[in-house]
Design brief:
With about 425 residues, this protein is of the alpha/beta class. It has 15 helices and 13 strands. Helix 3 packs parallel to helix 4 (about 140-150), helix 4 (about 140-150) runs parallel beside helix 5 (about 165-175) and helix 9 crosses helix 10.
């Protein structure tokens, strides 16, 4: 039975404008191979929901159901996509001379990363459209999320990942019963294998922006942070950027909320954060280009942003420029330093990708891209517990006298 929840009118290509019928299986634009965006009847949406209605709803991403494309609520595949906390980071902020510095911690979501939002929505729509076999090329967390949601939906899942992906990501895909294929290459090589096998296998490709619904799940980050900031958006958002679904999704959410009158025309400056070893969006932004050239020999410890070429590059660059944002590349050394700083001073165990945003903030402050008096939001996109972490400890022999002074001395330097 159909519910009265979807306000979708059609899907549309943001590059050439070609429309695509709602309720059908789609990948990319049939005319120009661009990603597709879901279009809603915002007038109908406005008659169904007000922002005041949200207070009575469960604290999960499905509270924004009128903004989402699913028609039949029985098709929803959920593992408990909770509202993630907005944390004011006071110690780190004080050290930078900032009183309004926040982190949105997406590591609290199922499978430990923001990928849960996108895959919950993508798997839900796959179920609604009758898709039973799915696949994804992944740097790590997207594969883990698809594996978990696909298992919950009873689907056949095939995951392709680079051989140097974080071990925990590979294992979480294996434990759910997915077929895991480890490739001696990068995520682009995995994507090529997925696409070339489509005709033979019949699987549906869940790659970033090669299906139109992951972005709708990621869009809920923008809705959620707006609600948490009481509909007064921050001045700037630092976001770790690989495929860019979240960045584009938030930009889309802000536009939809303005059309409903929930927010004004003010937009946070969207700041794309990449690693120096893989920074195609930063390079394209600095060159004034509308698309990004593929990055050669991509290398960084932050696997989630090691994406040499993103199909949605033009949308990311459009969102950054329209909001007056910028793009910043950071070193692996600064990522690790920021990861330790967040853990030791704030108790936030961030993924390398999330820690990269703090490193980028420091660069932005020095460049004058943001002011110390502004309200700034950093996105931690995943739990650092899923990654190898450096650490030192004191070893004690129970059969020998305990050197308590040595223990105290170790503690005095642990937060240096």
């Amino acid at each position: 039975m159909k519910t009265d929840r979807s306000c979708v009118t059609h899907l549309e290509c943001p590059r050439c404008g070609t429309g695509h019928e709602a309720g059908k299986i789609h990948t990319v634009c049939v005319s120009c191979q661009s990603p597709l965006l879901v279009v809603y009847d915002l007038g109908s949406m406005a008659s169904r929901i007000t922002k005041e209605d949200l207070s009575a709803r469960d604290p999960d991403m499905w509270r924004y159901r009128e903004f989402l494309p699913v028609e039949d609520s029985q098709n929803v595949v959920s593992l408990g996509e909770t509202v993630t906390p907005l944390l004011q980071i006071r110690t780190v902020g004080s050290g930078l001379g900032m009183e309004r510095l926040f982190v949105k911690d997406e590591g609290r979501l199922p499978t430990g990363s923001f990928k849960a939002r996108g895959m919950a929505m993508a798997v839900t729509m796959a179920r609604e459209l009758g898709i039973r076999r799915v696949t994804v090329p992944t740097a790590g967390n997207a594969g883990g999320a698809l594996a978990a949601y696909g298992a919950s939906a009873g689907m056949d899942v095939f995951v392709f990942c680079p051989e140097d992906s974080p071990e925990i990501n590979i294992k979480e895909c294996c434990i759910t019963g997915s077929v895991v294929c480890v490739v001696n290459g990068l995520i682009d090589d995995c994507g090529k294998i997925v696409r070339e096998g489509k005709e033979l296998t019949g699987w549906f490709d869940m790659s970033t922006l090669r299906e139109p619904y992951r972005i709708e799940g990621k869009k809920t980050m923008g809705l959620e942070l707006a609600e948490q900031f009481q509909w007064d958006l921050p001045d700037a958002i630092f976001y770790p950027t690989g495929g860019g679904t979240g960045l584009i999704g938030m930009w889309k959410a802000f536009n939809e909320m303005e059309a409903l009158g929930w927010i004004g025309s003010k937009r946070p400056r969207l700041i794309s954060v990449q690693a120096e070893g893989c920074a195609p969006i930063v390079r394209a932004f600095e060159e004034g280009a509308e698309t990004a050239r593929p990055w050669e020999a991509a290398e960084t410890i932050a696997a989630g942003i090691r994406v040499p070429h993103a199909i949605g590059d033009f949308l990311m660059l459009r969102a950054i420029r329209e909001t007056g944002g910028t793009a910043i590349a950071v070193s692996d050394e600064d990522i690790l330093r920021s990861q330790r700083e967040l853990a030791q001073k704030e108790g936030i165990i961030a993924a390398p990708e999330g820690a990269a945003t703090l490193a980028a903030l420091k660069i932005a402050l020095n460049r004058g891209d943001v002011g110390k008096d502004e309200r700034i939001l950093l996105f931690n996109t995943g739990s650092g517990l899923k990654y190898p972490m450096p650490g030192e400890f004191v070893r004690i022999d129970k059969n020998q006298p305990v050197d308590y002074q040595r223990i105290l001395e170790a503690g005095s330097g642990s937060r240096a």
